[in-house]
Specification:
Strand order of the largest sheet: 1-2
Pfam families: PPR_2
Distance between the termini: 141 Å
InterPro entries: PPR_rpt, TPR-like_helical_dom_sf
Number of helices: 24
Order of helices and strands: HEEHHHHHHHHHHHHHHHHHHHHHHH
Number of strands: 2
Family: Belongs to the PPR family. P subfamily.
Largest sheet: 2 strands, antiparallel
Helix content: over 70%
Radius of gyration: 39 Å
Strand content: under 5%
Keywords: Repeat
Amino acid sequence: MTRASLNALNQSLVNSANFYGNFISKLPFSSSSASSLQTIENSQCKPLLNPLYNLLPETRNPNKIVDLISSSLKQNNSQLTLLQNHIKPLIPHLGCHEITRVLLRFQSDCSSALTFFNWVKNDLGMKLSSHNYCYIVHILAWSKNFSLAMNLLCELIDFVKDCSNCEDLFESLVSCSKDCNFDAVVFDMLIKGYVRKDIVSYNTLISGYCKEGRMQESKYLVHEMIGNGISPDSFTCRVLVEGYRKQGRLVSALNLVVELRRFGVSISSGIYDFLIVSLCREDRPFAAKNILGRISQDGYVPKPDIYNELIKTFCRCNNVADALLVKAEMVRKRIKVNLVAYRALICSSCRIGKTHEAESLMAKMLKSDILPDPHICRVLIQCYCDQMDIDKAESMLSFFAKKFRIFDTESYNVLVSTYTESGDMEKLMELQDRMMKLGFAPNSLTCKYVIHGLLKAKRLYKQKLLGS
């Protein structure tokens, strides 16, 4: 038989198959939906594909769709996208039964099974059945991918909840376990999945009440949760604490945390961090330090930022001694003090006139490889000028310029202003020369101070002449 006659025979078979396929599709027992699989039901309700489909080429034969997809998955998971275009006419014939068949073929290869499941759900946009979900959950749990299994189980809970005919998921999981490998932990996960989903409902209600400032109703719901055996999670605690903080009721927030701990609720370190920082921002460092001491006994390990925040707050409240105690504790625990904390300590020491302590702190800061900033320079220069220690102020200004390339014009102007008060213009001009050689450039304020100094010097000279 020639190639031409073979081609003619093949075309004849295809045409015949198409004719009979169209004929059968019009029979009463066939589906009227274009996207559903044309099947003949047997006594066990399993679909039997039309045998005439076997007369079609493989890529147009619905009987081959499971084999084609399985073959592509075995080659490379990324082949599904290419296959999608190749078998486009067959996609409407990919039903829930065919999806299950593919999943069962790859129950020992959870990666391929999950790739296929996501391809059907996301790329093809098909609505999967609850049994399709049950099979992929079993496959993932059997392969010890418990996190992914739990996520899909929660999706399944939502899926069943939204369906008009409420299914018994436990029965569905048991039914599907007969056809594939399974781990009994799936049934424990189902219970946890249902618990994870109140919790979402409770948290939504609690969050809504907190946003409206109805903290009493929120607290009642928390008690109801605990009474129903549902433990509040970190989101629940955070929403409640933030709700109390917005109302300026941090004490109530602290009392709630203590109460939740009595009920055995685990409080995350993030909640404690939030409470301590909130107390600091309300300028209540002693309360913050007190709660830090209490929770540290329970294993809470504060981050360096928490200690630094405490130091900054104590300094802002002019409690330098307590700030230094916190710093000493950090040194003892080998926790690094940051620039913000050192700046607060130096500024606070200068504010109360303790320049020696401020210099000592800066020396320790430099030893820790933390470089000063213009603000520290400014505070120190101002402090020495206030004490009329002009030589020390100039020496410090030169040190910052030479060592750290900090040319702070504001600090320079403070020094110029101090010289003008004395009325000694000769010394002021000499200072100008020295500073310009270092790299300081006068600005409009500098000129204003110099003019003020000249006027004052002139006035003093006149007074001197009149006095003589």
